[in-house]
Amino acid sequence: MNVRQQRLIEKRKRAAGFRDANKTLEDFDWTFNPGIKRHPIYELATAQFIRQHRDVFLVGPPGLGKSHLAQAIGYQAIKAGFQVLYTSVFDLVRQLQADLSPAETDRNLTRYLKPDLLIIDDMGLKVLPPKSGEILMEVIMRRYEVRSTLMTSNRPIEEWGKLLNDVPAASAILDRLLHHADIIEVTGRSYRLHQAAQKQGKDSGLTAGKKK
After folding, report:
1. H/E element holding 184?
2. Are 61 and 154 in contact (CB under 8 A)?
3. φ/ψ (deg, to 5) at 87
4. Does the pTM exceed 0.90?
5. DSSP 8-state symbol, 158
6. DSSP labels, 115-154
7. Which residue, of 8, 98, 124, 199, is most buried by count of CB atoms within 10 Å of its CB?
8. Using alpha carbons only, how large is the chain's radius of gyration in Å?
């Protein structure tokens, strides 16, 4: 039974389409940014918000680990028996904007409506294509109070109107998402910049060593 359960978890993890399937809460570096509190994240990892059909916002600048935390929460949800789908906002919009037959469009839309938890990552990295607001609004409104959605945003939610080029759609999306949402602000230093600086330091050391 344990083997069968583990196989089911692995199958659901593959179906989730995580960008990095190995992201867990255990390997998140909590000491690097002490401002990121463990308690609310581990509370989300219990998947209780999914049972309550609540939504989650992880908001903060790029490079702080929002994608890591989102995927780790998704993995915990899978272990709790829920179906999860991970996507970037760009992939979601691109797929639902594709010039397909009505039947294919419905199948694509159902793919985003069916999971117990839909994780939409990378909101705010750049301005989205025209009519993205309408597409995102369709997904959010159809999931509202029926399924849970977790979104990460690199920009404050008050800037979503500019990002979507559609202030009314952004307002409608946020009206639904914020109604039953846990909003967690992620602050601190960028892991990526820190790692890049470390790598540059190592490379400089190696170069200096070779010159000697």
Report:
1. strand 181-185
2. yes
3. -155, 155
4. no
5. G
6. SSEEEEEEETSSPPPTTHHHHHHHHHHHHTTTSEEEEEES
7. 124
8. 19
SS3 label, residue 172: helix
Contact 91, 136 (CB under 8 A): no
pLDDT tens readout for residues 69-113: 999 999 999 999 999 999 999 999 999 998 788 899 899 999 999
Q: Hey, what amino acid is at 89?
A: V
pLDDT tens, 139-198? Answer: 999 999 999 999 999 988 888 888 888 888 888 888 888 888 899 999 888 876 656 556
Instruction: Pick the closest to residue 12 from 138, 99, 117 (CA basis).
Output: 117
The two three-digit tokens of residue 175, written as one number: 């009206």
Residue 90: how many other CB atoms lie within 10 Å: 17
Q: Give the pair of three-digit tokens for residue 203.
A: 């490379």
* Domains (range + CATH), the chain: 2-211 (3.40.50.300)
- Counted residue by residue, the chain has a size of 212
> How is residue 182 annotated by DSSP?
E
What CA–CA distance (Å, rounded) separates 88 from 50? 20
Tokens of 55: 């939504």
